[in-house]
Amino acid sequence: MKLKIAYIFLSIVLLCSCLFIEVSALNFGGVTPYPEMKIVNLDEMNNEWYKEARSFVNDEAIIMNQFVYKEIGNEADEWDVYYYNFYGSRPIMRSEVVTILSRYNGSYDTIDAGKYIGSSCEDFVDVPDGQWYTPAAQWAYENGIVNGVGGAYFAPDRTITREEFAAMLYRYTEYLEVDTSARVDYSDFADSGSVSEWATDAMSWAVAEGLISGKPGKLLAPQDTITRAEVATVIYRYNNEVKAHRDIWDGSIW
């Protein structure tokens, strides 16, 4: 009798364990985490200055948080921790910028550009086939948003400056056939003279639209590399002020 009761008890324990694993797998995309797994969003903990911009670009799948796994201690006395981190201070690359603009623009299906998906980039010799940024680079070039760096090179891994990003966003707005005539005299910025001649229209437009407000010390810092946080902030402001092309977004990510 005792053996029979023990057998029933063991069966119940095994059944409950299986149910727990099934539910966990459903909740975490087929991956069963430790029961005491912690998920921490480092940016929310730090309450960063670009919080609203980060939330916007994340919600719209334009610039995403990075999901980072980190082990602490050992399984005997500590559980694993998973971190969300936006890496806002990291400089942004040219390949990322064209991807960000294409995602902001909308899915490729909605702009009748399905031909770009999975395609090669015929105009840049340093953009390999099948890379995550290949369709965006081709789309941006064909629509006059980027011109390359000379000699049929795109330089996808090169970081960009604040004035370069202003120029790309300016050209993107022209591509949308949205008014880009706004101008302002930005000579009151201490380093206004360091803006490259080719970027003056774009920078004047960006300041006039409130997209670039400068850095401490009344600096435009046009030659400084632009960070993920700064790009997110400009895109957030652009969406609020220019409101150029959000009507076609269907929420898909290519």
What's this entry about, in short?
The protein has 254 residues and is mainly alpha-helical. Helix content is 39%, strand content 6%.
Topology:
Layout: H1 2-27, E1 38-41, H2 42-46, H3 51-59, E2 66-70, E3 81-85, H4 94-105, H5 134-142, H6 162-175, H7 200-208, H8 228-241
Parallel strand pairs: 1-3
Antiparallel strand pairs: 2-3
Helix pairs in contact: 3-8, 4-5, 6-7
Overall description:
- With about 250 residues, the chain is mostly helical.
- The chain folds into two domains: about 1-85, no CATH class; about 95-250, no CATH class.
- Helix content is about 40%, strand content about 5%.
- It has helices at about 1-25, 40-45, 50-60, 95-105, 135-140, 160-175, 200-210, 230-240, and strands at about 40, 65-70, 80-85.
- It has a three-stranded mixed β-sheet.
- The protein is globular.
- The termini are far apart.
- Residues about 10-35, about 110-115 and about 245-254 have low confidence and may be disordered.
